[in-house]
Amino acid sequence: MGLYDRYLAARLRRSDATLPETVALVITERDLLTDGAYATLEQFFEWAVQYEAETVVVYVSVLDEEAVPTLRRELADLRTPEPVAVRGPGDAAAVDAPIQISIGLGGQSEFATAVRKLAEDVESGDLSPEEIDEAAVEEHLVFPTVPDLVIKTGAERLSDFMIWQSVYSELYFTDVNWRNFRQRDYLRALRDYQERQRRFGR
Question: Which Pfam families does the UniProt entry name for this protein (predicted)?
């Protein structure tokens, strides 16, 4: 850790402001094609756990679904400080792990699947329309986690990542591309989060 990194770390620890319990990261499949991309992701998980994140969610946006099986294998084999759950297109089982990875499973598709399951519950008589509320929707999401902080590298565009869950999340955009993302960039995101006043839509 360099001098500037140590300075940022010291400011984080001295602050009375809270750190995010749930951190989400948005990257692309192209980001993972660069040299050292998976090693950086392993380091990212270490940094997140080190700075008190209880849950880490990574969304990998995918243009070519044929790349999903390869990405799934690579991501499932990462060295991580906590257990990992990986989901992709067609997966419906909810994740239940400290580190959660979505490969091309966009928020629109996830939400549509949740609505379809609710409709099936109503049709079977297990649920009445009047019982459908926010909690009922969340019970049917693949990624029910609500991020405190969402980090997007490279551009100010989120696609349809966790459109239900991240509605009140703090968004942090950095011009740094994933191949150049370092610990100081993560610490800057945490420091920015500490300096914000969360309003949760109010």
Answer: Prenyltransf
